[in-house]
Amino acid sequence: MSNPQYWNGQQPGRMAPNNFFSLEPYRQRKDASRVSIIEKYDVLGYIAAGTYGKVYKAVGKQHANLNQLYAIKKFKSDSKDNQVLHYTGISQSAIREMSLCKEINHQNISTLKEIILENKSIYMVFEFAEYDLLQIIHYHSHPEIKPINKSSLKSIMFQILQGLTFLHENWILHRDLKPANIMVTQNGVIKIGDLGLARRFNNQLQTLYTGDKVVVTIWYRAPELLLGARHYTPAVDLWAVGCILAELLSLRPLFKGEETKMDNKKHMPFQENQLLKIMQILGTPTVNEWPTLNKYPEYHQLQRFTMFPSNLKAWYTNNGGVDEDCLDFLSKLLIYDPNVRINSLNSMSHEWFKQDPLPVSNIFANSTMKYPKRRIHKGDNDILGPVNNNNNNNNNNIYSNKRKTNLNNIQPNLNMGMNMNINMNDLTSSQKRNFASFMNNSSNIGFENAKRRN
């Protein structure tokens, strides 16, 4: 253990000054050691934007990451013209994504490199993936239809299931699987991304519905969720996988329904059109094939629908499908009853994956397609925002000792260990609860040592 006399470069025989551990000197030492995100990364522009904020493409500038590509996810703050007016805390989605991503490590899940907190903004730095499945599907469907070859199709699905099995074995639901959230690297490796809606589902104190009433993008939402399930299982992710497989086969969404928007936060509308789209292909569910169907809160809504027969085989044939094993696999993913629906681990052992061509580690290996790279929007490549333009030439000014909000009391350069240094006395009650939740998730997940579920 280090001798206190030597801390902070003190000479032998000299004790640390009396104020060494007080707040202001501590802040000065931390400010002096901080490195701005623009010093570590050269931002090329943003590649995606959404309600969460923006994702930027960047190149490493320091010796350890020189010329390596990264995707930097910047969470949106309460702002006007990119100038932060006030800080209201870290969103539940951001806390979940940070706490989960920093603990998990798998070849088919996007790798989090670090988290940086700077100037009241949160940045998650991920490995860069040049493509996503939505981009690939669009390329194959425009301007003319170009079917995805069998080798690529199997390899995509198998790698998705490998990543999903890892999540489920470690008690994590993704809850937002869709083509746009399935990344593909330049080397043809699938990476499941965007864990903003992901949730641990062991040792629940409340139902999953209590915390998040709306999960999964509507076209990929499982029927049990559409019927108002308060309790659900990893089967919701497998339904989404089935929808993704169908979309890869036909190059268009399988169940493209119109979402009914919420009229208020207390009343959840019944998604009639989406359920109709499902029944037109899979047929109307019955209690005989789904014994717990009448237990769902929205079961009575089924009375308004016409009885439809199952048309999945006809849909498959009309879209050029000839492989019976593939149809069987698709039908097992799209079973109404979640208790019967195939799980991710058993999916990888399905007969379809045992037939030639076998899945490979590079989904592009047996393809002649040359996919265009992600489009970069260069109109906004100032990742720090206009408020910091005057400081870009003097990075020391970026880290002023004046703290206007509590977020600046957090150590901004977090590695995979992600130790946080927070002055809890400066935080509001809401912020204290958020950070307590973040730290609790960080210390108790233990994914690497989790055992497989039966």
From TrEMBL:
- Where does the record say this protein resides? Nucleus
Q: Where is the Protein kinase domain?
A: 41-353
GO cellular component terms listed in the entry, alphabetical order: mediator complex
EC numbers, comma separated: 2.7.11.22, 2.7.11.23
Do the record's keywords include NAD? Answer: no
Question: What keywords appear on the UniProt entry?
Answer: Activator, ATP-binding, Kinase, Magnesium, Metal-binding, Nucleotide-binding, Nucleus, Repressor, Serine/threonine-protein kinase, Transcription, Transcription regulation, Transferase
* Leader sequence residues: none
Q: Which reaction does it catalyse?
A: [DNA-directed RNA polymerase] + ATP = phospho-[DNA-directed RNA polymerase] + ADP + H(+); L-seryl-[protein] + ATP = O-phospho-L-seryl-[protein] + ADP + H(+); L-threonyl-[protein] + ATP = O-phospho-L-threonyl-[protein] + ADP + H(+)
One MF term in GO for this entry?
Answer: cyclin-dependent protein serine/threonine kinase activity
> InterPro entries under this entry?
CDK (IPR050108), Kinase-like_dom_sf (IPR011009), Prot_kinase_dom (IPR000719), Ser/Thr_kinase_AS (IPR008271)
The family this protein is said to belong to:
Belongs to the protein kinase superfamily. CMGC Ser/Thr protein kinase family. CDC2/CDKX subfamily.
What's the name of the protein? Cyclin-dependent kinase 8
Lineage of the organism: Eukaryota, Fungi, Dikarya, Ascomycota, Saccharomycotina
